[in-house]
Each structure stands twice: as structure tokens, then as C-alpha cells.
TrEMBL record:
<dbReference type="InterPro" id="IPR018062">
    <property type="entry name" value="HTH_AraC-typ_CS"/>
</dbReference>
<keyword id="KW-0805">Transcription regulation</keyword>
<dbReference type="InterPro" id="IPR029442">
    <property type="entry name" value="GyrI-like"/>
</dbReference>
<dbReference type="InterPro" id="IPR011256">
    <property type="entry name" value="Reg_factor_effector_dom_sf"/>
</dbReference>
<dbReference type="Pfam" id="PF12833">
    <property type="entry name" value="HTH_18"/>
</dbReference>
<keyword id="KW-0804">Transcription</keyword>
<dbReference type="InterPro" id="IPR009057">
    <property type="entry name" value="Homeodomain-like_sf"/>
</dbReference>
<dbReference type="Pfam" id="PF06445">
    <property type="entry name" value="GyrI-like"/>
</dbReference>
<protein>
    <submittedName>
        <fullName>Helix-turn-helix domain-containing protein</fullName>
    </submittedName>
</protein>
<dbReference type="InterPro" id="IPR018060">
    <property type="entry name" value="HTH_AraC"/>
</dbReference>
<dbReference type="InterPro" id="IPR050959">
    <property type="entry name" value="MarA-like"/>
</dbReference>
<dbReference type="InterPro" id="IPR020449">
    <property type="entry name" value="Tscrpt_reg_AraC-type_HTH"/>
</dbReference>
<feature type="domain" description="HTH araC/xylS-type">
    <location>
        <begin position="8"/>
        <end position="106"/>
    </location>
</feature>
<dbReference type="InterPro" id="IPR010499">
    <property type="entry name" value="AraC_E-bd"/>
</dbReference>
<keyword id="KW-0238">DNA-binding</keyword>
Length: 283
């Protein structure tokens, strides 16, 4: 579990430099991965982007400072890297539903309010063996249509699948594959926001004129295809293994800013054959 050690080391680095300006280039270099690889790995393991983690940790420490000492709110904001009182107040209220003055006045000290640093034991406990098989294949380009999740939350992703299911032709002609396509931006900083599309080939879509349908073309490429066992809730753990263990030790490099899940039997809920497809190229 070398990647667990690397992430733990990197989180300690972030904690030691929480009051300093941090960049994704600096952090990923310290961890020993490319910034694109590191962001994917961090998000899959921790559940949020590097930028979100840093922001929430800074706000947590600033919240403690508001309650524990009497310095000006602006001084605390500047100490934790916020450029102005206004920027700090907006971020703080989004996080705690109170502005800094109200929070200080409330005297809240309950531990659940604060985001603690992630420790290595948490990372180790998440490590499960959910990959049962893998193969290298070249796939032709594929045109898909489907519904984009409003954000990356599990609830929004499930809603996109529900919309797709409601716009699928009946299963009289047999089962077919459906796809969960994750697309990443070509450029990013500490924050990275991916899009998720629940999709199928156009032939299976009932109402093709639905204005909310999105279209994506998966390009012809070489893929490493991992067979995932278990529920969709455990998918992040398989991604964690792929990006944290397998990819760094393989001969391949990531190709493109996307990957996708292929659900081999759309109608059969009992058949949980899920394939994670990672586009790669030789070094």
C-alpha cells in the first residue's frame, strides 16, 4: 500500500503548510505523481478534491481560532490564507451556516463541527480487494447519449441514472450495456470538478429529442478494463486501487481526461458485472 504512505505523507505536508500558499504542482510533485494522476487518486480516496480538503481544513482551524482567542476576525482570515474579510465570510458561512461573528458569539466547540486531518489508519481501513480481473483491449469509438449529473454527489449520480432508466426502450429486445462516463477538465488547479454522464447507445433511447439529453463520443483507444466486484458504493475503492497501486507500477500512462464504467446488463439488477475502463497509452 505504497500509495497510502504517499498520501499520508502528502497530507502531513499540507497540514504543515496550511497557512502557506499551496499549488497543485507543488503538492503533486511532493507526492511523486503527475498532478492529473494525483488529483484523481486524492479524490477517490479522500472523497473531495485537494482544494476542497485544504479549504475545509483552513476553515476548521480558523473556526477554532475564532472561539479560542480574541484577535480580529480579519487577522484570523489573513493568517489562514484568505485575501479579505469578505472572501473569508462567504466561505465560512457556506461551511458552517453562520458568519464568523455569529460563530464566535455562539462559542461552538463541538468536535463534529470541525474537519480533522485524515490519518493513515483511516486510509488503511478503506483498502479492500474489489478487483477480480483485468484485461487490455482496444475499443472502437462509441457514441453515447444520456443524462448529466448536476454534481459529483452520489445522490445526483443516482438521479441521472433514474432519468436514463425512464427514457429507455422496453427490454423486449434483450439486455444491453450502459455507461457511466466521468470527464475531467483539461486544466485545473487545486480544485478539479468532474462531470458524470449516465448513458447508453442511442438505439436504446426512447425519446431522442429530449432537450436535456447530453451526447459524448468515447474515442477509439487502448483501455485497461478492470472487473469490479461488489456494489456501486464500493466503486471508489476500486478506483483507489487502480490509481494508487496499479497505474504507478504499470508500463502505461493515462490517455485523455476521462474514464468510464460499463454496466454489462442494464436491466438485470442481480448481475453486478461492472467494468472500469481506463484509457491508456504506452510510455
Amino acid at each position: 500500500m505504497e500509495y497510502i504512505q504517499n498520501l499520508s505523507k502528502t497530507i502531513n505536508y499540507i497540514e504543515n503548510n496550511l497557512k502557506q500558499k499551496l499549488t497543485i504542482e507543488e503538492i503533486s510533485q511532493y507526492c511523486g505523481y503527475s498532478k492529473f494522476h494525483f488529483q484523481r487518486l486524492f479524490h477517490q480516496v479522500v472523497g473531495e478534491s485537494v482544494g476542497q480538503y485544504i479549504m475545509n481544513r483552513r476553515l476548521a482551524e480558523a473556526a477554532k481560532a475564532l472561539v479560542s482567542d480574541s484577535r480580529r476576525i480579519l487577522d484570523i482570515a489573513l493568517e489562514f490564507g484568505f485575501d479579505s474579510h469578505e472572501v473569508f465570510t462567504r466561505a465560512f458561512k457556506r461551511r458552517f451556516q453562520l458568519n464568523p461573528y455569529q460563530f464566535r458569539k455562539s462559542g461552538l466547540t463541538t468536535e463534529f463541527v470541525y474537519k480533522k486531518p485524515i490519518d493513515i489508519q483511516y486510509l488503511k481501513n478503506k483498502n479492500l480487494n474489489l478487483i477480480v480481473d483485468m484485461e487490455e483491449l482496444s475499443l472502437e469509438s462509441l457514441l453515447l447519449k444520456g443524462y448529466q449529473a448536476a454534481n459529483g454527489s452520489r445522490e445526483a449520480i443516482l438521479l441521472s441514472w433514474s432519468k436514463l432508466r425512464n427514457n429507455i426502450q422496453s427490454n423486449e429486445n434483450g439486455d444491453f450495456a450502459a455507461y457511466g462516463v466521468i470527464q475531467y477538465p483539461d486544466s485545473f488547479g487545486l480544485d478539479i470538478h468532474f462531470t458524470y454522464l449516465a448513458a447508453a447507445e442511442s438505439i436504446h433511447i426512447h425519446n431522442k429529442t429530449d432537450s436535456t439529453l447530453k451526447e459524448v463520443i468515447l474515442p477509439e483507444s487502448k483501455y485497461i478494463i478492470f472487473s469490479h466486484k461488489g456494489s456501486t458504493e464500493d466503486l471508489p475503492l476500486s478506483y483507489e486501487y487502480i490509481y494508487g497501486v496499479w497505474l504507478p507500477k504499470s508500463k502505461f500512462k493515462l490517455r485523455g481526461s476521462y474514464d468510464f464504467e460499463r454496466y454489462c446488463a442494464f436491466w438485470d439488477r442481480k448481475d453486478r458485472d461492472i467494468q472500469i475502463c481506463i484509457p491508456v497509452m504506452n510510455p
